Amino acid sequence: MLLFLFFLFPVSLTAYCIYKKQAELFITILIGFLAATLVCAINFFFNFTHRVVPYSFGLNFLYYMEKVGLIPVLVMYGIFFLVTKDDVERKVDYFIPLMLAYYSVLLPYNVVTLCESTHYSGFLIFIKPLIYLSMLYSAGLLLRHLYAFAKEKKVSFVTVIICLLLLLLLFPSVLETMYVMNYSSLLLYFLSFLYCLLPGLILFVFKQ
Fold first, then answer.
1. Fewer CB near the last or first residue (10 Å), C or N of the chain?
2. Which residues of the chain are under the pLDDT cut of 70?
3. Interior CA angle at 101 toward 99 and 103, to 5°?
4. Burial classification of residue 40, based on how many CB atoms lie within 10 Å of its CB (0-12 exposed, 13-18 middle, 19 or more buried)
5. CA distances for 9 relative to 13, 72, 101, angstroms
6. 0.85 cut: is pTM over it?
7. Residue 44 half-sphere exposure toward CB, CA atoms < 13 A
């Protein structure tokens, strides 16, 4: 049952590397794997993982945003962006492989350690990985357009892309909060389905 959860990101990363055919991606991918392993090890040994779910949309939203949503992306990519010496265009191109490698470790760890039993719901092992895969690909695509608009000094377009990026990175935490607070399954799966279509929608819109 957990095969989909454990293999979705590594398989997607492998397919991405085959498509790109860039040997230099190896170091970026290794950084992502090692960073996630370190973070998960620290959490495992020093943080108490059992959590009583509060009946508060805001508190749950902030929790998922911190653990697996906006914050991990900003911190991991932010450090990578500041530390590496590649040019900006390459750093932008490295977002997807870096974060796919990072979430290949972080997401399964998050699901397994936060689940209170060995019974995993369909949302946790199928829908949640697809949501975060869509988040990373969509964010990577928007970053490329953000960089292109910034080079052309199109301030209004840059502002719009930044706002879209923030919404894009925050919405998975909304969906997770809806799930943990037992919102309507029909609404949850419908919104999740729409969210998973975002990479294709972004490709379509920006090719027009």
1. C
2. 1, 48-50, 116-118, 208
3. 65
4. middle
5. 6, 16, 7
6. yes
7. 12
